[in-house]
Fold this sequence. Notes:
Blueprint: E1 31-39, E2 42-53, H1 102-109, E3 120-123, H2 124-131, E4 140-147, E5 150-155, H3 158-168, H4 172-181, H5 193-209, H6 225-236, H7 250-267, H8 270-273, H9 277-284, E6 300-306, E7 309-315, E8 319-320, E9 328-334, H10 341-353, E10 358-365, E11 368-376, H11 390-407, E12 415-419, E13 426-430, H12 431-437, H13 448-466, H14 473-486, H15 493-505, H16 532-549, E14 563-567, H17 597-616, E15 638-639, H18 646-660, H19 680-705, H20 709-729, H21 735-757, H22 762-770, H23 774-784, H24 793-796, E16 798-799, H25 802-820, H26 830-861, H27 869-891, H28 895-915, H29 930-950, H30 957-980, H31 989-1005, H32 1016-1040, H33 1045-1068, H34 1073-1092, H35 1097-1112, H36 1114-1133, H37 1137-1142, H38 1156-1182, H39 1190-1208, H40 1215-1232
Parallel strand pairs: 3-5, 3-7, 9-10, 15-16
Antiparallel strand pairs: 1-2, 2-6, 4-5, 4-12, 6-7, 8-9, 10-11, 12-13, 13-14
Amino acid sequence: MSASAADREPGIPLDNAKEDISGPTCTGENSKHDSAVCSGNSEIKSRAVVKYSAAPPPTSYALLQEKTDLKLPPANWLRENPQLGSAGTTILGSSSKSKPFSSFGMAYDFIDCIGDDVDVVSDSENIKKLLKIPYSKSHVSMAVHRVGRTLLLDELDIQELFMRSSQTGDWTWLKEFYQRLVDQKWQRKKKSKEHWYQKAILSKFLYYSINGDGAAEPVQNDLNEGEEENGAEEFSSSWPTTFTSTSSDAEESDPPKQESVSVDSMFALGQVTSIPKEQNLPMLFNEGENSQGLRNDFVRNIMWTFEDIHMLVGSNMPIFGGGRYPAVSLRLRDNNKPINILTGIDYWLDNLMCNVPELVMCFHVNGIVQKYEMIKTEDIPHLENSTFSTRVVKDIAQNILSFLKSNCTKEGHTYWLFKASGSDIVKLYDLTTLCEEAEEEKCQNPFTLPVAVLLYKVASNLMLKARQNRKHYGTIRTLLLNCVKLLDQERHPQIIASAHYILSELFQLDEPPQEDGEESLRAGGSEDSYSDEDREEEEEEEAELTEDSDENSSYSSQDDSKAVAVIRSVGELSVPEKYKSTHQIRPSCAFPVSQDKEEKCRHVLSYVLKGLKAVDGTIKKESDLPAADPNTPIPLKYEDRSAIGACAAETGISLLLERAGPLQADQKHPTRSGMLPGSWQHRMKLQLFLKASKAYYVLSDAATNLLKYGRALRYIKLSLQCYDAYCSVSGTLHPQVLQFHSQCLSLCGDIQLMLAQNAKNRAAYLEEYSYQTKEDQEILHSLHRESSCQAFNMATDLAMDPEYQLFVSSKCYEAAYELLVSEALKDHASDQLAQVLKRLGNIRNEMGVYHMNQAAAMQTEKVKRSVSVAEQEMWKKSFAFFEKGMKDFEAIGDRTNTALLLCNTGRLMRICAQAHCAISADQSRGEFSPEEALYYNKAIDYYLRAIKSLASRESHSAVWDSVNWELSTTYFTLATLLQDYAPLSRKAQEQIEREVTEAMMKSLKYCDLQTESARQPLYQYRAATIHHRLASMYHSCFRNQVGDEHLRKQHRSLAELHYSKAVCLFLSLKDAPCELLRTLLERVAFAEFTMAGQSSSAAKLKSLTGAIEIMTETRYAFQLIHNELLEEQTELSEPDPAESAESPDVASAPPSGLNLEEVMKLIGVFEPSFSFLLLQLIKLMTTMKRKPSNKDEELLKTYKNVYSKLLRAEKNAPLLSRVKLHIELLQQLTSQTVSVNWVTPPLLNCSHGRWSCRQAQTVPAPH
Length: 1263
């Protein structure tokens, strides 16, 4: 039982306490109150929350004096009064006119509640009528609609609707069906005089009661009874009266409107959602449905929880208050007629819904006031003659709800709950199915449009929540597909276009791939319900199963074949849990989950296309457009751009930049198709064009990742064409749109760059580029209604010339950069700016390399060695691009790429140096020129800057190693050219030697012999070569030096040092036997030359013995040569059968591993030198004066034996035999002589005639 009225403070809402009414008294505030009503030993739970109230705070009612004549009208009668609302002219809020859309008005205003939170939305009168079904013999006729778990109930006044059908033709099919199956002798029933009499005195009673000061005086009753009736009827026909909310209402009445505005801003359904209710509905609904109750005209909207049933109800019951009774309801009763059970249930439910704790009853006899009586709400079920069980009412409510939820299963369908007058049978019909069977148009069902709009609104509202919680996506998709299915595109294109736009928004194109741990989008469904057809079939099957499995829900007979379900007897509704809801709400609300980006984008584009078709269908300015066949592909042109002049290219670039920039002023004139700026078509096309552009962008990006560059270019072309159409329609471009456009241009630049780098696959790319789907063609035709879509042709055409593709790529990046640094975006997207600058630096590097390679190609092809103007132009272009690229990378602090560009510039300088080499008259190489020296030194400067930019190897080891190698190479090349082609005409020999030595030592400095890498063998080979060259130079100086003995000794020691280091490094390599052999032979020659200047026999013997020891070191070189010759012989003797069949001459082809000519030359030097050394040793040891030791004799014997074999060897023997003989002789010598301290490294297996460059153990060089 509720607390007494005196125990509470009015106007203070309490969420968790049980208290009396205060909500209806608090205008414009959400108030929550709980009350409990006891019935016997059981308690009925009832809780009401006032969501909205248009009534002012209740004032005390006037206690009428006894004998007051209610037949006389008060002075204020029928005047607008916010205290009464519309109840002053009606019987406690029930309209004299049918309101088939009243629940929709409430649903529109409280869209957050629809779908999940609320079970029923309805007028309080309809709720009462349903709960009285088992007690009443009167007819029941209600329209039922389902949205999620919410049922919308509206009165369907058959009599009035059939009267209207003769004028509008809307319900002719239903009238015929009704007469055929339900009431064959239907006729209009007129209301009695008694009805109008009771209505009039109730109205007068209420107007008397609102005047607490007694100011209402009776007026002269000039109207006769008939005129009074007509007046009442005339007034009632204008119901409901809309009361303007006071300032205190604004706070509560605003939220629904705010929701609408936010929905509009997101989904562009302008006239449907953003304009206040009184203005927008006439624009949306035709034929004056506004007067049928589409607006929310209730004085208050209440969230009523009755047991476990949540209901949003509208009530117009006047509530009075003040003094001891802050909230009471007033009732007028004829003293001669006792209160029956129906009236008692009426009063009790009204007070429960509005949380009114007490009822004041005024009794009259023939309109003369007799007395007042106050009754507590919880006492109403126990009044004399109207006793009823509240528990039974609760059971009735639960059974009816379960029955409706089990059978009203299809969203968007209109169901009709009907009980004929005096009948115990309740039937449920699916009017949507009946309408379709009657072959009527969809719009012939007047509920179609309000239902569709409601489905759309609920989906839009869920979409706002779905930004944070994507589990709603399946529900949103189902709502919108049902919405679109209900509507005719020609009549309601705006809602259809908006619905398709939201459907396209469900597919998040920029989301990262979903991982296993993330929340699934399926919202409890499965991917089996992917297609609309599957979903519908599954719903139908489940609905049939539900009906068949629930033995209480459906009893079909031959007469009721059209009914979805039947309640055989209203008495069943009083049985607890007789009906149970077994239908799962939205069993198939699965959202199609796909990780495939292309599939997602194709879904988006299909919805965009449907939206565009809906919009285009409303624009009638067809005569101004060129006739286009949607089935005819629009060609995507490609052409060889090599012949296009600079003028045409510059024109295309200017167009590109013009479209890239932000537009200045809003458009005021109609667009190309005839759309007016600001219209819903205009706003919708903007959204759809942009969505299509983003979808094509994602498709292009995905194709780029798959290396399908022709397809990628086609998609980015379509994306930019959508953007071009967007620019044609839009007056201003927002920063986010400009930012997206810069991304498109960057991607376009990427694709053109990749096409230039993969010219060999051009035929495949052209085929991909030329392909078009029908969907793409149709979208393109829609775009052409607004724009020629030519602005970005220069950027997106497939050219055949790589240079032009690089040029286009650079211009795309430049346009993207200009956009990002423009006024509109200067404060946005710093990350994106860094990416674009990196791309700009990269493309400028690519173009620099391209022109550098062109210059190098010219150099190799030219006959005359003089530098041509074309070469110089290429150098200048290449250098300019490298300089710009370096600035781009420096702007973002990218030291690694800056170093790479400096490295490339160094290479360019080397190419310039090579072009300036002097050629003599006989085409031989001339002296090293000053220009060559200048460019080589410039190259060295750039390489040193690159190393400085990197700072250390840890910053980027690969780039550091590359720059190090190039620097070492440049120093080595400079030193080699100075040494081989010494500029003796300009410089002294000593100066050249110093410069050579300096350059060689610097090259040696950058030879990284310690770090294990792929280049280590190359560094070892270069270091060995440098030591060999320096040794040769000092050897030459020693031979030619005359006079200065100190200098000769210095040159001799330096030559020996470098020969020693060269031999050690060549020994560590396994693929340089010729170089090792040459170095050793030069070293032997150096020893021979030293010996020639000696006079004593002992000194000569020592020199000769040292030379022989050096000669024995050649055995390792001969072993390498021998093994390689054996490998080649094996390969030649066992050719591959397949290769032999294909190429008969393959066996006669020379092997590629060993330079046989070089080997023959070196052997030609080795044999005489070896013979000479042996002969001199034999002579010297034979003519020695001192007695030889046994060891000396054995050694002499060995020398003679080796010399003898060498002399007897055949000079024309095969090379392999000669090499083998030399190895044997050297081995024989090695075992007898004092050998050098080195270990022969293990030989490696070779493949294809070449030795592997695997890292070898470095032999320590002598110091």
